[in-house]
Amino acid sequence: MLRPAFIEALKAFAPGQETPFFAYDAVAINEAATRLLRAFGGVRFFYAMKANPSLGILRLLKKLGFAVEAVSVGEVLRAFRAGFSPDEVLMNGPVKTDAALRTLAEAGVPRLGIDSFADLERVARHLPGAEVLIRTNPDLPVRTHPSLATGRGDSQFGFMPEDLPRALARAKAAGLRVLGLHLHLGSSLGDARDFAEGYRRLYALASELGPFAVVDLGGGFGLDLEVERLAPLVEPFFQVASEVWLEPGRFLVARAGVLVARVWGTKQTRRRYLLLDAGMTQFLRPALYGATPPIVHLYEGQGEAVFDLVGPACESGDVIARDVRLPIPSEGDLILIGEAGAYGSAMSSNYLDTPRPAAYLFDGRCFRLLARAEEASELWKREEDAGACVD
Ligand SMILES: Cc1ncc(COP(=O)(O)O)c(C=O)c1O
């Protein structure tokens, strides 16, 4: 699903670069954004920046008219740094500490999603008069990986429907400005029936408790979902709210990005392996959620074989993909790990003292640096003053 022009550009660019590295296709991000804007006329979009918080990508989406959804103070500060104003940032998340809220009081107060009574009281104390959405738990067992199913009644997110009236009343009494209701069913949802049922439940609540200034339907669009089919499910919300918001993350950036890795050898145990310089440290989703990224090879080879692609970590779980038929490579050949634009670099770590890789944005003409690769010396910088007594 990568654009052929992007693959051709990578064939020319990648051989001269240190691997691994992330590369994103700005044209593909633009296309995904345009598709959403066309499908959902009149809706305001808050890009879920957890999918890929790169400043360059935030600025690109800002130009297209997107606001952002953040779930940590760090993300809010990053959004400000990218040029978003506080009213263009919505901060969700189940835990907002005193320290976090003090930082927001100084740096700029975004719109906030309220997730529990404890959250409500703390936000009201630190940020009186803040504009808030009340997050609803629709109690719906959506079809996705269990760790991504936030709309389930047994997840830790949102107020149960029966608690909503009390939450709304308490928020108002505590001096918060209630904009409306918020829902996020989960991530990587591929079945339109889950959206139909989740939105139906929220609509019933909004009609009963509204009207509101805003209803926010969250994100969660799976990559193969026909988003155009969801538009008729969203339209009715304009009868119960002046504004309807959506918070897509993955859908905008996942297929625009690849992780480029080099092959350092093949190996046969009871299975046949292809040894890469990228793995779970750079791209955790296969190990964490069983994600199965598409693989593209940038080399020609003599004959073919079926390989498991593995990274350099000393963990048998460091598998990027299994049972992939590929031409037999030589040392130094290049592989593209696809669908790495969302929850890829964002979830990469320094595990095994591995510096995080560089990232580039292809603008249709050239690759522009988004983030340089980390230096090894940056990895122990925080420990340089260690040893002193702390009181
Ligand atoms: C509150 C909220 N909104 C939006 C999103 C974006 O989800 P996705 O990237 O699947 O669109 C998430 C992701 O977990 C989320 O927690």
Please characterize this protein's 3D structure.
With 391 residues, the protein is of the alpha/beta class. The protein folds into two domains: 4-22 and 255-375, Lyase, Ornithine Decarboxylase, Chain A, domain 1 (Beta Barrel); 53-248, Alpha-Beta Barrel (TIM Barrel). The chain is 26% helix and 24% strand. It is built from eleven helices and 17 strands. It has helices at residues 4-13, 26-39, 55-63, 73-81, 98-107, 117-126, 164-173, 192-209, 231-234, 250-253, 285-289; strands at residues 21-25, 44-48, 67-70, 89-91, 111-114, 131-135, 177-182, 212-216, 241-246, 257-268, 272-276, 295-297, 304-310, 319-327, 334-337, 358-362, 367-371. The strands form two sheets. Strands 1, 10, 11, 12, 13, 14, 15, 16 and 17 form a nine-stranded mixed sheet that branches. Strands 2-3-4-5-6-7-8-9 form an eight-stranded parallel β-barrel, surrounded by five helices. Strand 5, helix 6 (117-126) and strand 6 (131-135) form a beta-alpha-beta unit. The model has no long low-confidence stretch (mean pLDDT 96). Bound molecules: pyridoxal-5'-phosphate. The site of pyridoxal-5'-phosphate has 18 residues, from helix 10.
